[in-house]
Amino acid sequence: MKKDIADTFAENHDGQTLYTLLVYSENIAGVLNQVTAVFTRRQVNIESLNVSASSINGIHKYTITCWSTEEQIVKITKAIEKKIDVVKADFYTDDELFIHEEGLFKISTPRLLEDPEISRCIRHHDGRMMEVNPTYTTVLLAGLTDEVTHLYSEFKRFGCLLQYTRSGRIALTRSTEDPVVKMLEGTDNG
After folding, report:
1. How far, in Å, CA of 12 to CA of 135, rounded?
2. SS3 14
């Protein structure tokens, strides 16, 4: 039997915590492969991965989530930091970060029109209808992972979901200073 994505996200991970790693590296080909190889060697599954330019010129930011024990995530973080092109790597729990994610849903327009509860559900979750045509309606929801997976479950329950995708998590630390900027400034002064 195929697992529902919301069930998969909420399932028991045997004492593991969902950690978010923020990895900063130079913008060089092959770094992503080096970083993901660290997870592969330790048989840790990456739940989400987002890579983009950071606020520092020439430095890219990897936002990676995985279920792990604290002991294991410390080892993973240290192994990633040893990579020559990695500037800095840190791990965080959800309460230490500002987190954002997006879900994009394609739902059946005929089902949407015949059941007003579907429209109420979209409004209740602050979803945005991006496109409506006679066949399907595209809905965008921006928020926390739990909010996105909950709307997914609701659409499945209504029997109107045609397609679904989620972005990787993006995150900022709750600290007032960017840890990489602070580290680089310390390097310049030393």
Report:
1. 38
2. coil
What's the Cα-to-Cα distance from 67 to each of 5, 72, 111, rounded to whole Å?
15, 10, 36
Judge contact between 118 and 107, C-beta under 8 A. yes
Q: Do domains 10-92 and 99-166 have the same CATH topology?
A: yes
Indicate if the pLDDT at residue 116 is higher than 50. Answer: yes
Of 161, 154, 149, 163, nearest to 111 by C-alpha is 161
The confidence band for 47, taking pLDDT boundaries of 50, 70 and 90, is: very high
CATH entry, 10-92, from 3.30.70.260, 3.30.1340.30, 3.40.630.30, 3.20.20.70? 3.30.70.260
Asked if the 99-166 domain carries CATH number 3.30.70.1150, the reply is: yes
Q: What is the 8-class DSSP label of residue 3?
A: P
pTM, to two decimals: 0.79
Q: How far is CA 130 from CA 125, 144, 145, in A?
A: 15, 19, 20
